[in-house]
Amino acid sequence: MVAADVGLLSFSARIPSLSPPPPPPCLRFPVNKFKPLSMASMSEDTVREWILTEGKANKITGIRPIGGGCINRASRYDTDIDSFFVKTNRSIGESMFEGEALGLNAMFETRSIRVPKPFKVGPLPTGGSYIIMEFIEFGASRGSQSALGRKLAEMHKAGKSVNGFGFDVDNTIGSTPQINTWTSDWIEFYGVHRLGYQLELVKQQYGDSLIYEKGQRLVKNMAPLFDGAVIEPCLLHGDLWSGNISSDKTGEPVILDPACYYGHNEAEFGMSWCAGFGGSFYTAYFEVMPKQDGLEERRDLYLLYHYLNHYNLFGSSYRSSAMSIIDDYLRMLKA
């Protein structure tokens, strides 16, 4: 993970920039070799059946494992007509992949930034679940930062909700449940379903009453940070770090593995500490979605959600970053 080059953003001196903590081992992807079709698990018969019927392929020519995270197994299915990207998980039901598919479809429908189109979610015969989606051949690099910023802003501008802040289903951020109950007020939604939920997990998992109590104090006093901001529910990817950003063979940006919901567009920058966004990204983004008053003061508030999630997922190496943000805000707000 790399610290973001924030370019044109001049963040408030009252909230110092944080050095990113070390990346969790889970996010270092292995390189896998070709796997012959005959070695494929029989539990994936359902996947092959869909590809050969509804997927309209006549023959599967190979199955190739693809390096991925520690949560799911990822594979490329090559056929006589096209290739499919398949993720399987033998211990989790369909709800996780259903949430991912709904998010991918919502982003796809904005006709803005490219995402893999989902085709099918279902149960594996021996337990667990799968998702089949479009296979996108990636280019040699992540592509243009300015194109990424512009396309992401176009998605935020196009993807609006009449239901308020939230999403049609709960989903996951990594393997952590992400609660998306529809809420009319953004400050309430972010305080309860983002920061509050993560703080509850920290307390339950680690017995960390200090960060819990200070974090709840921040939640109760954070409203002034939004003074002057016009906040509309925008469709967010929700987990936009470098591992979820690429480009296709034509150089067009591609984003994947979402944790979608409708929220304040600035919350999309919450993983910027390991997304590598540069100055050209922000310049292009704000040409489409104008910068709001107070963005610099809110920046670390949106980082905090992801630092707390990493604390819950990967352990105490992320605690100091989360606590530093909380303490800085409590001093700033005199809370």
Automatic annotation (TrEMBL):
Which SUPFAM superfamilies has this protein been placed in?
A: Protein kinase-like (PK-like)
Residues making up the signal peptide according to the UniProt record:
none
Q: Which Gene3D superfamilies match?
A: 3.90.1200.10, Phosphorylase Kinase, domain 1
The places in or outside the cell where this protein is found are:
Plastid, Chloroplast
| Alphabetic keyword roster | ATP-binding, Chloroplast, Kinase, Nucleotide-binding, Plastid, Transferase
| Catalyzed reactions per annotation | N(6)-D-ribulosyl-L-lysyl-[protein] + ATP = N(6)-(3-O-phospho-D-ribulosyl)-L-lysyl-[protein] + ADP + H(+); N(6)-(D-erythrulosyl)-L-lysyl-[protein] + ATP = N(6)-(3-O-phospho-D-erythrulosyl)-L-lysyl-[protein] + ADP + H(+)
- GO cellular component entries: chloroplast
Which EC number(s) are documented for this chain? 2.7.1.172
- Name any one GO molecular function: kinase activity
Tell me the protein family, please.
Belongs to the fructosamine kinase family.
Outline what the protein does: Initiates a process leading to the deglycation of proteins. Phosphorylates low-molecular-mass and protein-bound erythrulosamines and ribulosamines, but not fructosamines or psicosamines, on the third carbon of the sugar moiety. Protein-bound erythrulosamine 3-phosphates and ribulosamine 3-phosphates are unstable and decompose under physiological conditions.
Q: What is this protein called?
A: Protein-ribulosamine 3-kinase, chloroplastic
Naturally occurring in which organism (per UniProt): Erythranthe guttata
